[in-house]
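note to self: dont lose this again. the chain is below, predicted strucutre after it. 70 aa total, dont forget to put it in the shared folder this time
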Amino acid sequence: MPFVLGAVLSLVCFWIRQGAQETRSAEQRQGPRPGLSEALRRHPRESVLIGGITAGGTIAYCMWTSYLPT
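---
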């Protein structure tokens, strides 16, 4: 039963996605997408913040699953 429900939901989601409008304009789609180096250069504070949040969550998970059970 769960697989049938998942198959039906995937079809519904596919139908919704086909009807969704594109959020980028035609001019934006034509040009190249900025890379990682461009994002780091334009948004250094936000990049460090995302890295810190990711590292904090990873450290907390590793401590919870490996150190605390001992």
